[in-house]
Structure formats: C-alpha cells, structure tokens
Automatic annotation (TrEMBL), chain A:
Domain of life per record: Bacteria
Stretches with biased composition (Gly residues): 94-105
Stated name of the protein: UPF0229 protein NXT3_CH01463
PANTHER family for this protein: UPF0229 PROTEIN YEAH
Family, as annotated: Belongs to the UPF0229 family.
One Pfam family here: DUF444
InterPro entries: UPF0229
UniProt region (Disordered), positions on chain: 53-72, 86-107
HAMAP family: UPF0229 (MF_01232)
Native species: Rhizobium fredii
From TrEMBL, chain B:
Protein name per UniProt: SpoVR family protein
InterPro entries hit by this protein: Spore_V_R, SpoVR-like_C, SpoVR_N, Ycgb-like
Domain SpoVR protein-like N-terminal: 16-442
Species of origin: Sinorhizobium americanum
Origin superkingdom: Bacteria
SpoVR-like C-terminal domain segment(s): 446-499
PANTHER family listed in its UniProt record: STAGE V SPORULATION PROTEIN R
C-alpha cells in the first residue's frame, strides 16, 4: 500500500538557518580575503571589471585526502579508440599530472568558489568607511534649491492658479448641484418673448406666461446661488523646493615624483591613491579628481600620467600646493565643492620650502579644504625610529604645526603595502567629531 | 488508433498528475515489481515536495531530519548556484534508507517522470536497501529516523546550553574525521533511540561517578629500565586502549581527556551518521544500477502491457538515456565512470548472459550462462555483493569491449602514463581487477590508524598512515585535518606515513610543527 504524503505546504527553506550560518562564516572569510588582497598589493585589481573569485578557505572542510601527484595509480577509463597496450600518453602539464583521470575520485567541492561581483567586493572593501563630515556638510551647504512641481494645492498665490484643474472642479460642482444651463434659460426666455409678442393673449396663455416667468426667475435665483466658479473650485499649482544633490566633491591627489621617490615609494603612493580613487568613486555620484604631480615644478596631469609617467627631477613641494590653489580658484569654488586633498611624499624637500608649504596650508588651503590628508612614505627601517615620534623630515615637522591647529588635517606614515589599508581607515574612518572650520 | 478498451487500460494520459493517477500507477508498478521481478521491499511512503524543498533536502545529505550546521548551508548555496545557472538539473528523486522507505517526488515532475521515479526509487532502491547484506548488517533502517530526531534535538539543546560557536567547533572537527569514523571490520551495535536517550543520561551519571584509570597522573611504580619491560608496558597499554584502532572518531570519543560528555555525544552522533552512509558509499554502482535496471524493466513491461502511452514512454526513455550516458575519457563532459551507466549495463549484461550467452560467456560465467534464470541471478547479486566484488565477479569481456575500457597506469615520477591493458584477451582480467579495486573504499581511502598514546606521559597521540603504492596525503588538507584532531584530543598529535610493505617511514608531521591559523 503506498502512503502518499503531500509535503508541499510544509515550510520551505528548512536550510535557511544553515545558510545563515554559512554566510556569516563566509563573510568573515571574504573580509579577511579582501584584506589579504590589499596587503598582497592587488588594489588595482579590486576595481577591475571582471568578477573576483576566491577559494573559500575558511569554509573549507578538510579531510585526509590522497594527494594526486604521488605514488602509483591505476585508472580504468572508458572510450578507448586507438590505444594499444604499452602506449604512452604524455601527462597533462597542469593539475598535478593526474591526466585528468581523477576518474570519479575527484571532489568537485574542493573547487568551490565564491564569485563576487565588483560591487560586492567594493562593499566589503569600504565597509564602514566614510569621508569625514560629509553628512554635516550636506546639511549645511545644500543651499541650492530647485522648485519642482508637486501636485496641486487649495491655497496659493493668484499667479499659480491652475485654470484647467479649477474649471474641471467647477464643472463637476455645477453638474452635481444642477446649475441651470444657459440654453435652458434661453429657451424659456424665448418662449416668454413669443407669448408676450402674441397680440391677444388668451387666459391660458396668460397663465402659461406667469408659469414661465416664475420658472425663469427660479432658475435665475438658482444660477445666482450656484456660481460658475466658486472659491472652493480653485486649485493652485503647488511647488516644492527640492534641494539639489550636492554630492559634488573634488579630490586633489598630490604626489611627489621627484628623484628621491624611488620605485617603492611611488608604488606605495600609487596604491594609496588607487584606494582613494576607488573610495571616492564609491561615495559620490559626481566626483572630480585632480591629479597633481610635482618635482621642482608642479603640473596638473591626467590619471595615466600621474601613475605611470617616468618624469623626474628635484623637489619643491610648495609648487604642488600652489598648483592646487590655482586649480581651486579657477574651477572649484569652495562654496560649491567639497574639496578633499591627499598628498603623498617621502618628505624630502628643498630647504626652507617646508615652512612655505605649512603657511600655504595655514593661510589658504585649510580654509578651503574639507579634509586634507598627508601620507609620508618612509623607509621600512625608519618605521621604528619615526613611527611614533615627531621627529622626521622637514616637511613632517612643518606639517605637525598644521596638524595641531586644523582638526581637518591628518598626517600619517606608511612604510609597506600592508600599512596602507589601516592608514587609510585611520585617515578616512568615521571620526568622532571633526570640527570643520 | 487506440480503441476504447485499450484506452481505458492506460494508467495515465498527458503529463499532469494527481493523487489518483499516482496511486493507480503505483499499484501497477508494484504488481510488476513484486510478481514479475520478485522484489522484496520496505513499505513505501511517497512524499510530494516542491523544488525548493528538494534543494533543502539534498543539501542536508538527504536526511529529512538533520541538525544544523553551516556546511549544509554551503552545500545549499553551491547546489542552488548550479541549479539556477542551469548547470545542473535537480535530481528527480531522493530516497531514504529507512523503514518505511521514504521517496520524495517532485511537484514539478510530469506524470511519466513520477512513474519512473516510483519504479526507480520506491522499488529499485528500496529493494536494494532492504536486501543488500551491507545495509542489513550495518544500518538499521527502522531506527535511523528516530535517531536523527534525537540527534537534531540533542544538538539544538547543546547549542542552547553551550553556544553555537562551541558546538560548531566540535562539529567541524568531527566532520573532518567522518571518513575515519566508521568501523570497517566489526559491526557497530544497533541503534535504538529510546535506549539512546536512556544511555545518554546514564552515561553522564557514570562519567561523574567513575574513576578512570586513564586519568591517573601519578607515575607507576615500576620504573624499570629493562627494555623488555618497557616493551611489555607499551603493549599492555595498547591492549588496554584496544590499539591500533582504525576508528579515529571512536577512539577520540572514548579516550580524549579534554572532551566534555556532551562533546563526546556529538562525536558519537557524527560517527553514527558516517556509519549509516558507509554502505551507500560502497554500493554506488550496484545501488544505482539496481534502481535503473528495475525502472527500465518495469516501465518496458507496462508499456508492453499497453498501460503507458508511446509519448510517455518516449519521455521516460529520454530521461533514462540521459541517466545512463557514459562519455568517453577524452570528452569534455567526462566526469569519471558513471555508476548508473556501469551498473545498469552490467545488470543488463547479466540478463543477457543468463538468457542468450555466447561461448565466451560460457567460459567466463559457467554458473550462470544460459541458466535462463536472470531474475534469481540478479536478486542474488544485489543481495550479496558490494561494488568491488560485484564488478570482480560479473564484469564480462563483452561489456569491457562495449565500454572500450582501458587501464592506465600512472606513476608520479614518470612523464608518461602507460596504457597497461586494453579491451582484448590479455587485458580483460587486469581491467576487471583494477576497476573492481577502484571501487574498494578500504583500498582507496587513506588508511589512518591510532597507533599509540602515552596517557601517563605527555599524552602525545600517534597516528599512522599506512601508505600504499606510495600515495601520500594532500599536505594542506592533511595539516588542517590534523589540527582538527588536535582540537579534539587536546594534546600533541603526530602522523607518520609508513610504507605498508616495507615498514619504512616516509614522512612525519606533528601538530607541534603546524602553525595555528
């Protein structure tokens, strides 16, 4: 006897709990993997268009497994066409030489991978990162409003009367309240006129005339009581002031490409800016990025030149700040733009120029900038010496004075790729209270 | 044109199904299965489920009741991913070795598919579960569902009491050792959920009360330097612990000094489940072959009786053909030897040998060739073999030729693989033996045994991997697994790879050298 049971109405998603446990676990793993990736120096890859896949190591389930590339094995395979006993087949180069003949013993689960879209990667990448003070600034500076139609209102100024809507209301009201129409009254009036014109009116006609006059009077009274356009019919166009999205920000990337910036230093700076670039692309709908590189003279360049050009020379840092100032004056009025700046340098500067940089910041730039981050790239051996002290290059010492005065100024040192992400988080992490200007 | 009389003989028409047609078809299938094929089955319980529920079901290793663990979630996400991208169809059926035998029918199946699934699972698999000696000896179909219920509740209770993380950690480690958690040679005691619960309570009390010699930390009196005496001590110690032990999980459950009673119970649960599935892993070819052969035979019989339309039969044959498709080794779709294809072909071959043997068959299978009694021969094979012995006994030269099987020998040091044998007179024996061996789990799974532990000393647990044919362990997963062993054992664990034939030590690794991650 079969016993049929209909389970379709049973709860689905019996494995929901399992899945949640898994995703929780996977998320930790993914975050870790992404941090690893940043450390291992593949920041640029994160922004690549293709998906990022990573083996799920933290969610692997290890067991004792025979290694594919050891020992002697024998496989029985189907579909021989041409081989005779004693033939030799070259092993495949990849996959540990098992000639793809894992033959039913292979475990597909080992290849289990997460495929994360770029979006997902970036989400993990920028989790709880935020440009400082952004929200506050938006509230304060969202002064531009655009009036936008937003339906109708019963009150308003005469200029905004919406005739169509008003007339429609009045028509509806007139129909509902049976306001006598003009044709109806004209017909009665014509009848009256005809009867009055009659030379000798019979009593019947007289009586009829009286009725008609009465009716006409009644209609006229009614017409007066029910106006053609009543104040209740009037509708006004309603406008709502809508704040214009003020998510326009400009990021100045200042980089020292002087001779003292070696391959390593440039690389570190590059990575820092790549991260920054990614970060800004994420945060803003509209973001301008200005790349300024400097040696002993500074110039605005495009992204490619910024990162990949080989030009080099002496070092005058202040030229970059002046160039930045020039660009701000020309194109980015501080009233309309949120200005951020990040400067990467090894701190080497021509003597006397560091003070000039500091005063440029003090007097001009810090007032314009929402946030200014200075990243000094130092030698790994110097980390221990300089890591915690105020000693260091002239630029560093000069900037310390700025740091003390302006809360929206941050400075820090990095020595190796692994430092970048923590430093980045430190610089751009949610900060308790940065008092702007 | 089908006449009216013939039409009324049909079990169903069209692709829609309802419970009435299901039931009518079931009865017809049952008649063929029992009377014609002589199958012997557990009572059937057929459950209709939706596709989501099917995904749910086979992500929790096919059990209707299962404790919660993230790895099942992982499997779900994985399967779901493949399914949604169209890489893999859902299984049409799922069947559970229990009494009554539970078969899941998917709502989305057409009636023809429901009939096929009923014949395949509710009779083919069911018969195999009930009659195969491995299942009879090693699993207890009537107790498994209530045991799983107990396991699920128990683990939930543990999670409430000790926290999900703690339970998860134990389960992770236990799962890693699942393959080392079965008795291969002696039969485990039967389960009973009622007894189980009682036992659990008793055990907790017992553990508290009993003094165990294993816990003694005082040195023994005889500190002799006599090597013989030391030798004797060691062998006594091993004897007391019943070493060497192949069941690592069992050993840890009984002997580990750091495990709490509830942790031991969880190890036990995992071990019981591993044991329950062990016969299934040993009989894949036979089990699927049996079910496929049964559905093929039943469906053809019903078609011959005029009870299935040609359209339905075509649909059934199409899906049957998909199931038994065997791509060649150089085909990009080649996933290994398809157990459905091999099992089905062998069973059909047995039928052929019994009914219409060639002279070659008479040479190879004198007992059955021409006996005409293929039903009995198959029933006997299904009952008394596992994959390895089945292939060794029944794989015929005709079939080796049909599959064009060849034997490839692969030595790690060589640049080339050598074709050792092909489907010719000289190769049949070798191919058959090699193929059979490749289904022998005992031979293919790493043989890892607990060798020694000095409970009175440093409690260093020594495992030994008996290396056969020079096949070592994959290193990263080996180390990760050893970490799990250490987690359950609490003290240093080392693994030595010993060449099985020469006794030469090939490698040694210890948790002391493996970095914690």
């Amino acid at each position: 006897m079969p016993n049929f049971i209909d389970r379709r109405l049973n709860p689905k998603d019996k494995s929901l709990g399992n899945r949640q446990r898994f995703l929780k676990r996977a998320r930790e793993e993914l975050k870790r993997a992404i941090k690893e990736q940043v450390k291992s120096g593949k920041i640029a890859d994160v922004d690549a268009d293709h998906n990022v896949s990573m083996p799920a190591r933290g969610v692997s389930e290890p067991t004792f497994q025979p290694a594919g590339d050891t020992g002697e094995r024998k496989y029985v395979l189907p579909g021989n066409r041409e081989f005779a006993a004693g033939d030799r087949l070259p092993k495949r180069a990849s996959g540990g030489g098992a000639t793809g003949a894992g033959a039913g013993t292979g475990r597909s689960e080992d290849e289990f991978q997460f495929v994360l879209s770029r979006e997902e990667v970036l989400d993990l990448f920028f989790e709880d990162l935020e440009l400082p003070d952004m929200v506050k600034l938006n509230l304060k500076e969202s002064v531009a409003f655009k009036r936008r139609r937003a339906g109708f209102a019963a009150t308003g100024s005469p200029t905004n009367i919406n005739v169509g809507r008003t007339m429609r209301n009045s028509f509806g009201r007139r129909i509902a309240l049976h306001r006598p129409g003009r044709k109806e009254m004209e017909a009665i009036a014509a009848e009256i006129a005809r009867l009055e014109a009659e030379p000798k009116a019979s009593t019947k006609d007289q009586q009829r005339l009286g009725e008609l006059r009465e009716a006409l009077e009644k209609l006229e009274r009614r017409r007066r009581r029910i106006p053609y356009v009543d104040p209740v019919d009037i509708r006004f166009n309603r406008f709502e002031p809508q704040p214009l999205p003020n998510a326009s920000a400009v990021m100045f990337c200042l980089m020292d490409v002087s001779a003292s910036m070696g391959e390593r230093e440039k690389d570190l700076a590059k990575r820092f800016f790549v991260l920054l670039h990614l970060f800004l692309k994420r945060r803003y709908d509209r973001i301008d990025i200005v790349f300024i590189r400097h040696t002993d003279e500074a110039g605005e360049v495009d992204e490619n030149t910024f990162f990949y050009s080989k030009q080099s020379g002496g070092t005058i840092v202040s030229t970059a700040l002046e160039e930045m100032l020039r660009v701000i004056r020309e194109r980015y009025p501080a009233r309309e733009w949120n200005i951020y700046a990040a400067q990467a340098s090894d701190g080497e500067n021509i003597s006397g120029d560091s003070e000039r940089c500091a005063s440029l910041l003090h007097d001009e730039l810090m007032r314009l900038c929402q946030y200014y981050a200075y990243v000094e790239i130092i030698d790994e051996r110097e980390t221990e010496i300089f890591g915690t002290t105020d000693n260091g290059t002239s630029l560093w010492r000069a900037y310390r004075t700025v740091d003390g005065e302006w809360p929206n100024f941050q400075m820090t040192r990095i020595a190796k790729p692994a430092d970048i992400y923590p430093v980045f988080r430190k610089l751009f992490g949610k900060q308790p209270a940065v008092q702007a200007r | 044109m089908p006449k009216k009389g013939a039409a009324s003989n049909l079990l169903f028409q069209g692709s829609d199904w309802n419970f009435e047609t299901l039931s009518r078809t079931y009865d017809a299938i049952e008649t063929v299965a029992l009377d014609d094929l002589g199958l012997d089955v557990y009572p059937n319980q057929l459950e209709i489920i939706s596709s989501e529920q099917m995904l749910d079901a086979y992500s929790s290793v096919g059990m209707p009741l299962m404790y919660q663990h993230w790895s099942f979630g992982k499997r779900f996400v994985f399967e779901d991913h493949l399914y949604r991208r169209g890489r893999r169809g859902l299984a049409y059926e799922l069947v559970i070795n229990s009494n009554p035998c539970i078969t899941y029918l998917m709502e989305e199946n057409t009636m023809a598919m429901q009939a096929l699934v009923t014949a395949h699972a509710a009779f083919g698999h069911n018969h195999f579960f009930k009659n195969n000696y491995l299942f009879r000896q090693w699993t207890d179909a009537s107790a498994i569902l209530s045991y799983m219920e107990f396991a699920k509740k128990y683990i939930t209770k543990c999670e409430e009491r000790y926290g999900t993380t703690a339970v998860e950690a134990i389960l992770d480690s236990a799962h890693a050792l699942m393959d080392q958690g079965v008795f291969r040679y002696r039969r485990p005691p039967r389960l009973s959920s009622e007894k189980e619960r009682e036992r659990m309570r008793e055990r907790l009390e017992y553990e508290e009360q009993t003094y165990s010699d294993l816990w003694r930390t005082l040195p023994t009196t005889s500190e002799s330097s006599d090597p013989d005496a030391v030798e004797r001590d060691v062998s006594e110690r091993k004897k007391a612990l019943n070493l060497p032990d192949e069941n690592l999980l069992y050993f840890l459950e009984k002997t580990s000094l750091i495990l709490e009673p509830w942790q031991r119970e969880i190890l036990r649960i995992v071990r019981v489940i591993a044991q329950y599935f062990y016969p299934q892993r040993q009989t894949k070819v036979m089990n699927e072959g049996c079910a496929t052969f049964v559905h093929y035979t039943i469906m053809n019989t019903l078609f011959d009786q005029g009870r299935i339309t040609e359209g339905a039969m075509l649909e059934i044959l199409q899906s049957h053909t998909n199931v038994v498709f065997q791509p060649s080794f150089d085909d990009p779709r080649f996933p290994g030897i398809n157990p459905y294809a091999l099992g089905f072909a062998m069973m059909q071959d047995i039928e052929r040998i019994c009914v219409d043997p060639t002279s070659e068959d008479r040479d190879w299978f004198p007992d059955i060739a021409g006996s005409g009694n293929w039903r009995e021969t198959l029933l006997d094979a299904w009952a008394n073999h596992r994959d390895e012995s089945f292939i060794l006994q029944y794989l015929s030269p005709a079939l080796i030729r049909k599959f064009r099987l060849f034997l490839l020998s692969d030595e790690a040091d060589e640049k080339y693989c050598e074709v050792a044998s092909i489907h010719n007179e000289r190769g049949y024996e070798a191919i058959r033996a090699a193929l059979a061996r490749s289904y022998d789990i005992g031979a293919n799974q790493p043989d890892i045994q607990v060798m020694d532990v000095d409970l009175l000393g440093d409690r260093h647990l020594r495992l030994q991997h008996n290396v056969k044919n020079g096949i070592l362990l994959e290193e990263s997963s080996r180390d990760a697994t050893l970490r799990h062993v250490r987690h359950l054992w609490g003290y240093e664990v080392s693994l030595a790879g010993v060449e099985a034939e020469t006794g030469e030590t090939l490698y040694e690794c210890s948790t002391a050298d493996i970095e914690e991650d």
